[in-house]
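<given_protein>
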Amino acid sequence: MSMTQSGIRAATLLTVFLSGGTAWSEEVRLTIKDSPQPLATAAKRLETREGWGITYEEPLGALPAASPLDLTYTVTEATRADVTLQEEVLTRLLAQQAGKDAPRFRLVRAGGLWHITPVKGSPLDTPITMSRQERSLGEVLRALCAEVTRQSGTRVELGGTPGLQLETPITVDAVT
């Protein structure tokens, strides 16, 4: 190999190496139109696109708020997993809903997930008590749903649980 070819090859490898470490950023525009539950749709899209864990609870007796949502944010590989960006984006979405005749929501971070819940009227705010007992994760979740249903009078069911191993035995300490 000639000296020129070696120089070109080294320059090419250096360029490839440096570009691999270059930070990228992407401007994302999230637009929701013609959806009976635009906030729920936006949360699902963010969950799918960015990999953020988001739950959404529709307020009881709420009429669907079909007003459009439009949000732009910038994401990088580093900020995608950063809870600060996640909180900023989700808070901005909630702010768009707050000024409309839509139900008001709050954003809560718990258990590594973001929860979009009604400000008031959530059956999940119902206080319950569980005794200490070893059960499978699925049994615990179904028992929680049954107790919330019993206490609040609102039917609560265990939804889809992809990735959760419901047969895993766990012990929940006695809690209220």
